[in-house]
User: Fold Circadian clock KaiB family protein from Methylomonas rapida.
Amino acid sequence: MSKAKPESATKASDPVWELRLYVAGQSPKALAAFSNLKRICEEHLEGRYRIEVIDLLQNPQLAADEQIFALPTLVRKLPQPIRKIIGDLSNTERVLVGLDLRVSP
Assistant:
């Protein structure tokens, strides 16, 4: 896994969402989380997002720096405030609410 960048150009007025997905290797949960995140971003943030995948098997010290206790974990760095979502991101509604892309019902 590596970085995914938006394909379409962003407008200066649209904030770029910086998202970090913390995983442990290429496990089924990690792959599902990345796939789900990519789909959600394409549907709701088209052209306005950056995904950085961080494999904690290769960089374990980053878990302590970001206070990551479970995997996979998604961290929204920008726009602030920072938000964290744990799991494979299969519950789209929960992810949208967690990222502040949709108000909870």
Remarks:
- Helices lie at 28-44, 61-66, 92-98.
- Residues 17-98 form a domain with the Glutaredoxin fold (CATH 3.40.30.10).
- The chain has a mean pLDDT of 88.
- The chain has one domain: 17-98.
